[in-house]
Amino acid sequence: MLIPCPYCGARDSHEFTYRGAAVGPRPDPARPDAADAFHDYVYLRDNPAGDNAEYWYHGAGCRSWLKVVRDTTTHEIKSVTGAGGEVKP
Amino acid sequence: MRYSLFNIIANGLTGQRFSSPAWRQVAPKPAYDVIIVGGGGHGLATAYYLAKQHGVRNVAVLEKGWIGSGNSGRNTTIIRSNYLLPGNEPFYEWSMKLWEGLEQDLNYNIMVSQRGIINLIHNDAQRDVYVRRGNAMIVNGAGARLLDREEVRSYLPFLDFDNARFPVKGGMMQPRAGTARHDAVVWGYARGASDLGVDIIQNCEVTGFLRDGDAITGVATTRGEIKAKKVALAVAGSTSRLAGKLDLKLPIESFVLQAFISEGLKPFMETVFTFGAGHFYCSQSDKGELVFGGDLDGYNSYAQRGNLPTVEDVCEGGLALVPQLSRVRLLRQWAGVCDMSMDGSPIIQVGPLPGLYLNCAWNYGGFKATPASGWCFAHTIAKDEPHPLSAAFRLDRFRTGHLIDEKGVGASPNLH
Amino acid sequence: MSRLSSGGFIDRSRIVKFSFDGKSYSGHPGDTLASALIANDVKLVGRSFKYHRPRGILTAGSEEPNALVSLRKGARHEPNTRATMVELFDGLEAFPQNVTPSLSFDVMAVNQLISRFIGAGFYYKTFMWPASFWEKLYEPIVRGSAGLGTTPNVPDPDHYEKASAFCDVLVIGAGPTGLMAALTAARSGARVILADEDYLIGGRLNSEKVTIGDRDGAQFSAAVAAELVAMPNVKVMSRTTVFGVYDDSYGAVERVSDHLAVPAPYQPRQRLWRIAAKHTVLAAGAIDRPIVFDGNDRPGIMLAQGVQTYINRFAAAPARRMAFFTSSDGAWVAAFDAADAGVEIAAIVDARRTVADRLLAEARRRNIRTLLGGAVTAAHGSPLKSVDVVADGKRERLAVDGLAMSGGYSPNVQLACHHRGRPQWHPEIGALLATDPPPRMKLAGAANGSYALSACLADGAAQGAEAAVAAGFAAKTVALPRCQDDPVEVQAYWHVKDTAHFAFVDFQTDVSVKDIEIAAKEGFIPVEHLKRYTALGMGADQGKLSNFNGLAIMADITGRSIPEAGTTIYRPPYTPVSMGALTGHHRAKDFRPTRLTPTHFWAKRLGAKFVETGMWLRAQYFPRPGDKDWLATVQREVTAVRSSVGMIDVSTFGKIDLQGPDVGKLLDRVYVNTYSTLPVGKARYGVMLREDGMVMDDGTTAHLSDDHWVMTTTTVNAVKVFSHLEFCLQVLWPDLDVRMASISEQWAQIALAGPNARKVLEKIVDDPAAVANEALPVMGAKEAKLMGGIAGRVFRLSFSGELGFEVAVPARHGEKLAEAMMAAGKEFGITPYGTEALAMMRIEKGHVSGPELNGQTTVADLGLGKMASKKKDYIGRVLFERPDLTDENRLGYVGIVPVDKRNVLRAGTHLMPLGAAVAVANDHGFVSSATQSPTFGHAVGVGFLAGGAKRIGEKMRAYDPLRGGDFEVEICSPYFYDPQGERTRV
């Protein structure tokens, strides 16, 4: 699988580490239902058969965390962006 | 029809005149007491025990393809009860006990072969962890042995004891563990359930649920609507897809696990073993093929196929332990979709909606659990309460923190 | 000898000696083992898997199911090798497989007599009585007959390597279609890779007598290959099998040296290629399908394409008198070639009632008898002596020693199925075609059902051009050469009805029509059930020859069409691939990299014993003459530290450099305790959690200057913590102004510990006053010049419980630092110590480490709950507060000592109430780490117990049945040694 890193170009997936679904944002820990919100944030997943937004870390490359939209039935990558806005140069 | 020596001889002499379908070929009825969605080992075992242990016989098992087409037919056939945590070990040990009597119970030879499994130990810290687990197994009646290097050599003389990157220092063995013929388990339970009146319906995909308010009252299928008092899901690999139709989010992500076989070789590997410092496990089948596997392909997938880096990684693990496999050829690779849960342990649950029962999240270890999963899930469905052996597998453990995390990697499903 | 007097692509000027089954033969360069055996009249090459039926060579290709031999001896022994794919080399030794005791006489052939009882599924119905006999009696018998070849028993002396290749157009198969596709794409300027499993480029052009333009087929292919090889944008890869289609990547194996007795110096045996191709043309051709009739497996029966290949390419006649049994035009041409080569043709039996006049005329011209609408109903003899033929209601027996068959073609769509696209039935050509290939793959030529040569050339050129255009090149048209344009008519024909026991569908797994009938009767009707119940297609050929016939016969039996019966897909690899090639250089000691510490060679010189710690090799202990055993060594090292001074390399800890104005804020959010208030010049021990509330890692972080911090992590979690911090900074809080870099490899770090540690340190730092007790207090951290101007860092940290420092210098100075410490400490008897002494002292001290930070423990479980700030949020706080994680009966951190001090306490031991039964309910905890403490003179341990510290003082049973341990222990505080920490403050 080639992942088109926006900073490095298309690179083999073995340069990357997979984290999981790109859930978030991290809930506000001060909200009154924080326990429920964190439970959902940490544990519950849509786990779609189809397009899945997910976090990949280009650890053997530019060290960017990327948000990749990928079809879980075909592995086709639909889009790749920096995971938290632009990476600082 | 009961299988016996007489029956085999009679069939052989008469050109199989007395052969009959292993399970009845039937069309779905309009309604059942219980519908089990998923004709894999777990679903069929559940149906079998519902009928046999609880007298619930008005049951249908709905399978979208052919029975056993999911992970029941895509695993490496290992059975074992070498778990650590109290939430797990008694359950898996009960499964092991059921395996030990299953052939006579089902009148079907599923080739349970208790050839033993050895988890190799490569350093002291690992030995300490295995000893803790082995002691837990003994306390649970599962049995365990700690092997030193020479004892490992006596079982697995072909390992690289001289030049390995991670030297073999010993092993933890469960002598009662072994393998079973995976497809036969499916067929045996199907035949047993069918004989007790359960309808097994293939090519019947569930496309939606019939609802009465919150409650589930049946399923919509490619072969029409079918009503049921209770609908039980046993669709590992597809759980989130079906739960999504009920707007349920579960603590599951789907990953692909590959399995491999080599070309047939004259038997030289009697004992199942796992590599403790790489990702590789292996047994040799009764046909002579080496059956082996390793890590998950590490990203969400429903594709039922894996990628080359994992193949390479697994073969590296294999040759690291058994260098003489270098000229042996990999014959076939395949892949199953695993429900990987957030603590690496399964879910068996009444609800979470009225009329619904969940059996899922078997991670990469569902095969060995098949008998106990069916046993406990049947109890859960029949009695509307968890079986004591599977009580820890509750869905709300993620809310309360009563996790069953054998590996201690937390909410990273691909790392369990 | 069956070698023809002329023709073939073999070098008759040279003789190659080889042996099979212990007998010596000779062949020529250019031969395969199979062609050479045929040329030497060897008919019997193996025994079948289940019934041990004698078998001969069936094909001339990689689909061969019968002629599996063991190749070579000793360390290069190679089981299950297809004789059809082995290039002959001088001294080649091959051996038959699965013979008991010999190829010509096999006692296991007795299985044929009981075949009626051991058909499909018989295992499942028997061997159950009595229950215990499966493992003891039946299974050993079953296993005794399992498998084909044997596994080598010594490591492979050859090397394997891996390589990557990139191209615009990958063409798989170098027959007429593939050559034209590659040529067209290459002339358009695209980077082309042309791969073929054969060693001779040309595919069927080398097997068939055709004319293209003004050249014969082989000349044409040689000319095109030469042009391609000369082009800089083309890579022609022969002996290379593309075996798998993965995401954005093709797997291929190049057999670099398999045609040699021994690889050339510095050459690998095989090379694994990972090919990234923008577009792919699959031009893998099509293979003959066998016909199922009684005795269709007898040696001497061959597929028609194979016969044609052996005659035309290898000048080897498989028989003297042959019949042809077919339903396709191709076999007629093969028969003509055989006749022209001098083989007597007894008859061409064609299942079709009408056949092109052109073929009938050619047959007449050669006086070949033709039987249309006929069938071969049985074959006799081993090797083949005769066949029974029925045509027009008349039955006769033809005396032949060879039979060629073709029931139509199976296009080689296997690779097109690797993304699980299911082939579909095309009745007009009687074959399954790939209609849903992987992305950016097109099929062309015979692989796509176009069999006529002209169509193959045209299709190849068109697909090559299309692929080049898709890859962004302007297509150049390639003039199509003139060639035969005869249509190749095919009617699928798979089964002669009313067969007896040995009409084989799958030669390799011995599946017969009877087995399929059993499967049908017992309800194993879906094609995947059929395969699994009968083992159809489960052999080493992956059902290339058998799957179609099997499912078609099942369709017949159940009265359904082929689409209704369903088709099956193929999985990688296309042909089996050696595990050596898939492993490459990652073998033995090179399985994983070995990381060496900066002081590795220094430690080695001192005689250290090393231990694997993840990828690292660390000094475990430093034995000295006179030490009784390893324990005595370690205890001596501990005693030296506690009484004077010792040193240990701790460079393996993860080290992260953090800079920027917001580092304090970041640390507050990732550690349970507070850092933003930590003054410059100080370090602090911290614990960080995962978001699920469990402890992830611990370590110290030092504040070096306003915007500059340095963090240490545990050795095992160095990478994990680093990417976690990156995630925090990039995803969770991109507003924080922090830059970070891993400096684990860049800095050597050595700990000095013991009452004399400062005295040693003072001799190493350039300014001794800087490390005085007041100048560098406990948890102090500062930059300092050492050993005459080397810029380093000094931290006052203690893991041992003694006065301790950690000294960091750039990694290249690590060894110098170690030697400087040794020299400076000589007067104090400084003792280098290893990981064992480190662990022993930390257990005495009660520090948690790897066995406690096992991912199942909270900060409270570890007895560090007080560290967790109540005043701020941090990762993991919310879920750490879940009810079951704060339950006071959770497993909590305690110390454990044996009541009888002679007992040896070991990690992994369980804790139970005294006098309680051994039961799950009484399993209250366990020992996580334990050691034979020299300081206390007895075993001390730490571990986890339900209820934790509130049970201190309780006596319990330490139960370790795995190793026979069972004695009384007392629960105590885990902080055995200097619990107030006074020794570190001096």
What can you see in these coordinates?
With 89 residues, chain A is mainly β. Helices cover 11% and strands 37% of the residues of chain A. In chain A, 33% of the residues are buried. The model of chain A has no long low-confidence stretch (mean pLDDT 92). The longest helix of chain B is centred in the first third of the chain and has 18 residues, at 89-106. In chain B, α2 (41-54) packs across α9 (366-383) and α3 packs across α9. The N and C termini of chain B lie far apart (43 Å). Chain B folds into 2 domains: 21-81 and 84-106 and 182-248 and 348-415, FAD/NAD(P)-binding domain (3-Layer(bba) Sandwich), CATH 3.50.50.60; 118-178 and 254-341, 2-Layer Sandwich (D-Amino Acid Oxidase, Chain A, domain 2). In chain B, strands 1, 2, 8, 9, 10, 11, 17 and 18 form an 8-stranded mixed beta sheet that branches. In chain B, strands 5-6-4-13-14-15-12-16 form an 8-stranded mixed beta sheet. Chain B has a two-stranded antiparallel sheet with strand order 3-7. The mean pLDDT of chain B is 94. Chain C is α+β, with helices and mostly antiparallel strands and 986 residues long. Chain C has 7 domains: 1-154, Roll (Ubiquitin-like (UB roll)), CATH 3.10.20.440; 160-286 and 412-470, 3-Layer(bba) Sandwich (FAD/NAD(P)-binding domain), CATH 3.50.50; 317-407, 3-Layer(bba) Sandwich (FAD/NAD(P)-binding domain); 503-573, Orthogonal Bundle (Arc Repressor Mutant, subunit A); 603-652 and 746-841, Probable tRNA modification gtpase trme, domain 1 (Gyrase A, domain 2), CATH 3.30.1360.120; 654-742, Alpha-Beta Plaits (2-Layer Sandwich); 879-984, Elongation Factor Tu (Ef-tu), domain 3 (Beta Barrel). In chain C, strands 8, 9, 12, 13, 14, 15 and 28 form a 7-stranded mixed beta sheet that branches. Chain C has a 6-stranded mixed beta sheet with strand order 42-43-44-41-35-45. In chain C, α10 (513-521) crosses α12 (547-558) and α16 (630-643) packs across α21. Classes of the chains: A mainly beta (89), B alpha/beta (416), C alpha+beta (986). Chain A binds chain B through residues 1, 12-14, 18-21, 35-36, 39-40, 42-49, 52, 54, 70, 72-75, and chain B through 238, 240-241, 244, 249-254, 298-303, 307, 309, 342, 398-399, 411-414.
